[in-house]
Amino acid sequence: MKNSTLLIFFFFQIGFVSAQKPLYKDPNQAVDIRVSDLLSRMTLDEKVSQTMSIWQKRSEFLYDANGNFDIRKAEKNLSFGLGEVNRPSENPNGSLNGSYGRNPRQMAEITNAIQKFFVNNTRLGIPVMFHEEALHGLPAKDATSFPQSIALASTWDDELMKRIFTVVAAEVRSRGAQHVLAPVIDIARDPRWGRFEETYGEDPYLVSRMGVAVVKGFQGENSEKGIDKSHVMATLKHLTGHGQPEAGNNIAPANLGEREIRESFLPPFYAAIKEANAQAVMASYNEIDGVPSHASTFLLKKILKEEWGFKGLVVSDYGAISELQSRHHLIETQAEAGVLAFKTGVDIETPDITTFQYLKPAIESGKLSVAVLDETVSRILKAKFLLGLFENPYVDVSKAEVVSNLESSKKLAKEAADKAIILLQNNNDFLPLNASKIKTVAVIGPNADRKQLGGYSDSPKYVTTLLEGIKNKLGNKVNVTYAEGCRLIEESEWNRWYKDSTTPTSAEDNKGRIEEAVKVAQNADVIILALGSDEGINREGWAENHLGDRSSIELFGQQNELINRLSQLGKPIVVTLFNGAPLAIQNVQEKSKAILECWYLGQEGGNSVADVLFGSVNPSGKLPATFPRTTGQIPAYYNHKPTAQRGYHFEDNSPLYNFGFGLSYTNFTYSKPVLNNSNIKIGENASITVTVKNSGKVDGDEIVQMYIHDLVSSVTVPVKELKGFKRISLKAGESKIVTFEITPDKLSIWDLQMKNVVEVGDFEIMIGSSSADKDLQKILLKVEN
């Protein structure tokens, strides 16, 4: 009887505790159980609220006139909870991008204040997520700024990428955000497109490897079990076709067939989901075959969820659901736009409460089912549980400042910039320069003393320009003179990427600058000429009053006139290019001794370029995209089909610089590649080995590349495709053996039945230093039944 009483008392205690502490608040319960319990307690209003986010409406819903949290506004507008608050680093009273926004402590304070409201002042206490951009670092005050994406791709170093975005994740999370809208893994095939710089280039395999590494950096290695307090949830952008828009115009239709989508545009998304467990995907603005991505059941349901088994969140691009009505004209009202996107599989609307506010009446009228809503809300709640927000909703304010000011992060930014720089030309080994043999260096050009970080940037603690970097490097040993040479645009503000208007500098106004540059250069032993583009010229064009695409990839403004005049002096010219996309630079090639492609190199850019110029760093970057000779060659990507690129009348149709190309201050020699087995069966693996030797006198890094071509196939395939690469470091005279595995997925094609298969026949396996035929050695692999 006594034992029976104790047992009854024990079960009574459990029942009492359970009544006091719901299952969803018990961290010892499985996530799915917590999600189910919480969902069962939610009203329709609370469920719909989880699908929404706010950005520009923060002043209306969350902030007072000074940009501080206003609990009265929150209680009035957000009492049912909310899915996300967007870009808390920004202060609505400052500039759009947050250059006058919140420092680390201030951002941590505002996220804690907002989070406290949702945890303590809503009925169920569901935490809110905060999202930020994080393309090449958190675009917020005092955050570390790494090289722009296209520059990071030039490193061909996926291990480096993982380290970089582990740091970025820690900076984001320490300030109170947990979700980032990155990485961009679009395949970029048109350098007129202003968003080219945000990508990892034109090749599906390279982009896939970069994307997998970035997601692992953001989320950690074991994110399927949860994302810890130093990592964040990543979002793959943009599904899909975004990087080959019609005429290079942002958001224009992507005129692609299903096979090409599967061959070229989907592999990076598939790899990042399957290998790195990416937790979120963003649909793209563009349409494919008449169907915008936010309304594409083919993309969001058939492929993403059914074929790939994706269980994470689908996030809308900013305003893209509204555009189903306002731009694409698929339906008549904003309410219908919201219902259409929601049915298609979009879980969260960004950036503001616009169309998903109509989900509740759609459900009440029977246009939408509660079951579909429950599935969506379950995914959102699961993300919040995996992020640990129910147990750890707040951040340590003092830690935020520390994490954003680590010496190790600055060193990593420098390493990334060093590895990103590409030596495109070096006539007669003109570089590196010997400072002891130079009396005067003239640093000239519109980008010589201009701080450029590329899109989705803000104000890090410092940015080193080329002029500053050279002065830092040379000190008083060499006389350094400077002239702007010519100006590209009049805007000089820090946030010119965000400004709607851009004012090109007139040729008349640049006459005097060119004359001044000629005078300065007359007394120099060598001219360092900084050309390229500008953040205000080639950028994301997000509206008709905010354009960013170009009709030409020729050098903008009077840059060719500047180099023409300087070349008449007979002085040696070294050109450093700062830009976000390939440029047509035949004139530069003809008139310069050496050319460095620098892209936008982040906060350490000037120091890194100076180290390369004067030999402290041996350049090792390789091109992640083809450089056409002219605008008319576009598209010029290397992995084209056999009937493409026959040529043009009276013109050389070869690229100016091939995909994968990049010189060094040393030389590398390759042995003849050897297959471990030249005949394999379908489904079997092979491997290929090559010995690479540093045959020069300087230590250096080489990026060894493997390409494959199916010689005869049931459908057409590219003339060659990158299927492997390895970055190796070699001391002068040192050799290393490099081995690549050739697995079935590297031999497969999408056949006539749209099945991914390996066909019997001969495959060309190519090993070398770039995609150019002259740089590759070929060997045959036979595949049999």
Automatic annotation (TrEMBL):
An example molecular function term from Gene Ontology annotations: beta-glucosidase activity
Residue spans of biased composition, Polar residues class: 88-100
Domain Fibronectin type III-like: 702-771
Keywords: Glycosidase, Hydrolase, Signal
Family to which the UniProt record says this protein belongs: Belongs to the glycosyl hydrolase 3 family.
Keyword presence, Transit peptide: no
Enzyme class: hydrolase
UniProt cross-references to SUPFAM superfamilies, sorted A to Z: (Trans)glycosidases, Beta-D-glucan exohydrolase, C-terminal domain
The protein's name in its UniProt record: Beta-glucosidase
EC assignment: 3.2.1.21
Coiled-coil boundaries: none
Positions of the UniProt region annotated as Disordered: 83-102
One protein family per Pfam: Glyco_hydro_3
InterPro entries: BXL, Fn3-like, GH, Glyco_hydro_3_AS, Glyco_hydro_3_C, Glyco_hydro_3_C_sf, Glyco_hydro_3_N, Glyco_hydro_3_N_sf
Domain of life: Bacteria
